[in-house]
Inverse folding.
């Protein structure tokens, strides 16, 4: 079992690392970038900067609340589907740009207008970026019991620092605001691809040999997404099509809905975790 976990960890760790690094880097690059877009409209007074900070901190808080709700209330498969749907939806807001129509009323209600232009320009992408660090750590800890996910936290801190240091030195002097927006949007699209791939890679590799002993030749691992197996009486019966096709067959032949299957899997996982905790 430990060998299976290590094998799967090596397979998935690059996706976890790329997703976490990109999210933290983009999260801290967009703050000075969008601030530069709207400064000519609202000025550089302390109230404008304070309002921007309130917006970004509120988005971070909402992101953490979303992760808590997702992880505590939904089964793993539904977590994946919900998060991928939001990632795809956020692509419709690209490229990031501050709507020029806000300039007309910028001075009438500056605080509300700053919040409004930030929400329309970067609201959903920033929210999803803020969820990535804690969500990936939670999924990593769930996928690999006993493996600490804190290396992802360290990687996130490194990416954040690089984003803040690189913007005034490598980005702002050489790119106009529009070019920065397109570059950031391309990076965000890459993040969505990496995040979506990571969400779909939570199914582990497994071996059916360890329980009955190994008689030379080493362990052979199976991909749970590509092939399923049912074990009975010491014999292993392959399930063609893997777990996806099997779930659909159960729905059609035995009238067990996908929602009921997800609910059963969720409660089964919680019971297994509780049993392991009790020894």
């Amino acid at each position: 079992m430990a060998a299976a976990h290590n094998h799967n960890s090596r397979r998935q760790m690059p996706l976890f690392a790329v997703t976490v690094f990109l999210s933290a880097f983009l999260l801290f690059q967009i703050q000075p970038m969008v601030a530069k877009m709207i400064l000519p409209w609202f000025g550089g007074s302390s109230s404008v900067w304070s309002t921007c900070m309130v917006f970004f901190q509120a988005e971070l808080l909402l992101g953490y609340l979303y992760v808590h709700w997702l992880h505590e209330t939904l089964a793993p498969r539904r977590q994946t589907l919900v998060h991928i749907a939001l990632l795809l939806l956020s692509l419709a807001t690209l490229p990031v740009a501050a709507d020029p129509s806000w300039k007309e009323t910028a001075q009438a209600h500056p605080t509300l207008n700053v919040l409004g232009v930030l929400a329309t320009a970067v609201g959903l992408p920033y929210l999803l970026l803020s969820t990535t660090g804690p969500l990936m750590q939670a999924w990593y800890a769930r996928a690999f019991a006993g493996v600490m996910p804190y290396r992802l936290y360290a990687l996130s801190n490194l990416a954040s620092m690089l984003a803040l240091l690189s913007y005034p030195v490598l980005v702002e002097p050489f790119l106009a605001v529009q070019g920065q927006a397109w570059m950031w949007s391309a990076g965000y699209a890459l993040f969505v691809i990496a995040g979506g791939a990571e969400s779909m890679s939570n199914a582990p590799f497994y071996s059916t040999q360890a329980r009955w002993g190994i008689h030379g030749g080493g362990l052979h691992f199976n991909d749970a997404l590509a092939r399923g197996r049912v074990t009975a009486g010491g014999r292993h019966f392959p399930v063609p099509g893997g777990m996806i096709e099997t779930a659909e067959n159960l729905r059609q032949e035995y009238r067990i809905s996908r929602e009921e299957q997800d609910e059963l899997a969720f409660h089964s996982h919680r019971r297994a975790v509780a049993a392991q905790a009790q020894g």
